[in-house]
Design a protein that fits this description.
This protein has three helices and seven strands. Strands 1, 2, 3, 4, 5, 6 and 7 form a seven-stranded antiparallel beta sheet that branches. Strand 4 and strand 5 form a beta hairpin. It is elongated and about 50 Å long. It is an alpha+beta fold. Helices cover about 30% and strands about 35% of the residues. Helix 2 packs across helix 3.
């Protein structure tokens, strides 16, 4: 298992606050199209970072949680099963965005996450993402310790 990041580096992964994961993303030239607006597919990358870092932070203080999940379902992974996305307003180069990830429903083998991309008070993109838990190439029930952690985090936001 890798060493935990130094405390000042953890901010790169964002923070979980009141059940919501928040991740800052700066827009660079490479994120934009020829008009200077963020290319639509790049929002998928930003939201993937939000989901990945949310899961990382859920286990950051509970390494035993992910060890238990690995013992129960070796080689586990979360994969996107479906996504509904609405593009409401554009972002541009040098904008500072916030990707917000919030667990909505934790079921046996899947999680539904609500995600938003914001620039200050402006809501730019919304998405509902259903993520499946897989091990050995098949959908499997999410191990109980991980499901409990996500459900507990979900309860913190209500």
């Amino acid at each position: 298992m890798s060493e935990p990041a130094p405390k000042n580096m953890a901010v790169l992964d964002g923070v979980i606050d009141a059940g919501r994961h928040r991740l800052a993303v700066r827009i660079y030239y490479e994120d934009t199209d020829f008009t200077g607006i963020v290319y639509h597919a790049n929002y998928l990358r930003f939201m993937e970072r939000g989901r990945t870092n949310y899961l990382r932070l859920l286990g950051a203080d509970q390494h035993a949680l992910f060890a238990a999940a690995e013992a129960e379902a070796p080689g586990f992974a979360f994969v996107v099963r479906s996504m509904q996305i609405d593009y409401l307003k554009p972002a541009r180069m040098d904008d500072l965005l916030e990707v917000i990830t919030l667990p909505e429903e934790v079921k046996g083998a899947s999680i539904t996450l609500a995600q938003e991309v914001r620039r200050g008070a402006d809501l730019l993109v919304t998405a509902k993402v259903r993520v499946a838990f897989v091990s050995a190439g098949r959908a499997r029930p999410i191990p109980k310790p991980l499901r409990v952690a996500m459900s507990t985090d979900r309860g913190a936001s209500e």
